[in-house]
Write a structure and sequence with these properties.
- Helices cover 58% and strands 9% of the residues.
- By secondary structure, the chain is α/β, with parallel strands linked by helices.
- The strands form three sheets. The protein has a six-stranded mixed beta sheet with strand order 6-7-8-4-9-12, with helices on both faces. Strands 1-5-2-3 form a four-stranded mixed beta sheet, covered by helices on one side. Strands 10-11 form a two-stranded antiparallel ribbon.
- A hairpin with a 2-residue loop joins strand 10 and strand 11.
- Helix 6 packs across helix 16 and helix 11 crosses helix 16.
- The protein is elongated, with a radius of gyration of 33 Å.
Length: 594
């Protein structure tokens, strides 16, 4: 794969050049359209002056030319918006590589201090794992990313790895996908409206009388042409009678039409966006089995899913003429336009209504996988871990994936001849970061994403942690009480006999030293009886002595700090044994506190 920074820089330059050319064409189109308006107006004036049919035909030709130019101009402006959006995607990613995450949704609304690990591992909020991963364009994709972070499905992990890697190799396709998704701002209300409409039966009064509408439309059109050829008062009157009858039929159903318009106006743009994105998925050439399976869910016998959705979106757009009085009267007086739109909507609902949400599920899945593929593209030194059926967690050069590689220190870890690591070390030596490195990489591995390691083999353990709890005034709950509740929740999960990975950081901080030491030791001896592995970080050397007393269960490791050249120094390298160099006094002295 091309280096991400070079890729983004080259794209920004290319799209900037394209935008310059598009802006020039945009100006020329505006001038051309204005010229056609003037010419058509002149032909119309000449017709009213002389009543010669060729002036009328010339005016109609001018209107047709203007309409064609208008649609071409709209396509050009859509291309302009799309080019600007893709350019912005590259600029945002380039900023991301420089450490600026401000352009990306951080999922702060998903923060939950009661969850058994998400808050401890900073999954949501500023500078969170979510903000590094999230490149979703749809609400469904964003919701799926959230649910996979807090409770992965654990289905087809290896197949997802192949799918994510394949999408990572298609950065231009992914960026176009993201750009289309950014053109429409989705909201949850729109999804509810669409669900309500699809599940609500509807029928037009004229649904079984289309032939009558066609006959009346032909009659009014024929009378119009007859009057234009022979412009007499009598011919005009006959045309107005037919025109008025058509309007009367339409306005007899106007309440139904208005209701459908108000309901569907909220989702038409979203459906148009869905149609484009699904069309991209349909055209995408893939090799991985998981992506092939997703594409197969979009297959219809008669037409493409994107075509079907595009038709629905256009039918919904047809209601927009309700806001244009002239178009409303002319189109309905001539050929009952809104009755045909209404009938088309009901026909569509009967044919495809039950399938729509399965299509959206595929769209959400690809959107979610795109985010992980982008993460892979931005971190090409990360590897895909090996899934194991035995309770294994081993990694070489494991690091925290959100720490820049120039600052990150990686370490090896393997639970081969023991189940628990008692991790000691002085303040700021790296204990908490190491625990989070294990937790975050396990989450990524279970999702099928690459991890920050040279090699990693894992079993999909259930993750449990107690690391940075807080008190709660709302629940009248102290810090110590919150921690006891968390530990009780952990024990309840362990009692189900599910295989778990525990990450515990200085538990029972809310009590005195002797009580804390005793409680921690008893808790560790208790959890060691279950199907679990894990790491407990502590300052208490007495707890680390469990490693020598129960060698088949506990193992001691530590992080070291030294005073070098009069300055406190941390190397963040994991070592075997117990730390015996506390640094709280030295830290306070260096900061002028004592």
């Amino acid at each position: 794969m091309i280096a991400p920074k070079s890729f983004y820089q080259e794209n920004i330059q290319a799209f900037s050049s394209n935008l310059s050319e598009i802006r020039k064409k945009d100006l020329r189109f505006s001038l051309f359209r204005f010229s056609l308006i003037l010419v058509s107006a002149f032909f119309g004036y000449q017709y009213l002056k002389e009543y010669e049919p060729w002036w009328l035909l010339a005016m109609l030709a001018g209107i047709v030319a203007f309409t064609a130019a208008l649609f071409a101009h709209l396509r050009l402006r859509k291309l302009k918006r799309r080019t600007q959006a893709i350019k912005q995607v590259n600029e945002d990613e380039l900023q991301y590589l420089g450490g600026n995450l401000s352009a990306f949704d951080n999922g702060a609304e998903f923060k939950n201090s009661q969850h058994l690990f998400s808050n401890d591992l900073d999954l949501f909020g500023p500078h969170s794992l979510f903000s590094h991963l999230n490149r979703t364009s749809t609400l469904g994709g964003k919701q799926l990313l959230y649910s996979e972070l807090v409770e992965p499905k654990l289905q087809d992990v290896e197949a997802k790895q192949a799918a994510i890697h394949e999408l990572a190799m298609k950065p231009k396709w992914r960026q176009k996908f993201a750009a289309i998704g950014k053109e429409v701002e989705e909201n949850e209300q729109a999804a509810k409206v669409l669900k309500y409409w699809l599940e609500t039966d509807g029928q037009s009064k004229w649904l079984g009388s289309k032939w009558l509408l066609y006959v009346l439309a032909l009659l009014s059109s024929g009378l119009l042409i007859h009057w234009m050829i022979q412009p007499t008062i009598q011919n005009f009157n006959w045309f107005t009678y037919a025109f008025g009858l058509n309007l009367l039929l339409v306005f007899s159903q106007f309440k139904v039409i208005k209701k459908e318009y108000e309901l569907l106006n909220k989702v038409s743009k979203t459906l148009g966006m869905y149609s484009e994105l699904l069309g991209m998925i349909e055209e995408l050439k893939v090799e991985s089995s998981y992506l092939i399976q997703q594409k197969e869910k979009l297959e219809l016998e008669s037409q493409k899913v994107s075509t079907a959705l595009k038709k629905l979106s256009r039918l919904m757009d047809g209601f927009d003429q309700l806001n244009n009085v002239v178009a409303l009267v002319l189109t309905n007086g001539l050929y009952h336009y809104h009755l045909h739109v209404l009938n088309g909507l009901y026909d569509w609902k009967r044919t495809f209504g039950t399938k729509v949400f399965s299509w959206i599920e595929v769209l959400s899945e690809i959107d979610y996988l795109n985010s992980l593929a982008n993460f892979n593209f931005n971190n090409q030194d990360f590897v895909y871990p090996k899934l194991s059926t035995s309770p294994v967690f081993k990694a070489s050069q494991l690091g925290h994936p959100l720490i820049n590689s120039t600052k990150r220190v990686d370490n090896d870890i393997a639970f081969d001849e023991f189940n628990f690591v008692v991790l000691t070390g002085s303040n700021m030596s790296g204990k908490s970061t190491f625990l989070r490195s294990m937790g975050v990489n396990l989450i990524l591995a279970k999702m099928g994403a690459p991890v920050c390691a040279r090699q990693m083999e894992f079993y999909p353990f259930r993750l449990l942690s107690s690391m940075k709890l807080a008190d709660s005034l709302d629940r009248d709950e102290s810090y110590f009480q919150a921690e006891v509740i968390r530990l009780r929740s952990i024990k309840e999960v362990l009692e189900t006999n599910e295989r778990c990975l525990l990450l515990l950081d200085e538990i029972l901080r809310g009590t005195n030293s002797d009580d804390k030491r005793k409680g921690t030791r008893l808790f560790m001896e208790k959890v060691a009886q279950y199907n679990s592995i894990g790491v407990v970080a502590t300052h208490d050397i007495d707890i680390a002595e469990l490693a020598s007393q129960q060698k088949g269960v506990f193992n001691a490791k530590y992080f070291e700090s030294k005073v070098v050249g009069g300055e406190l120094h941390f190397d963040y390298h994991l070592r075997d044994g117990i730390c015996t160099t506390p640094n709280a006094t030295e830290l306070m002295r260096r900061n002028g506190i004592i």
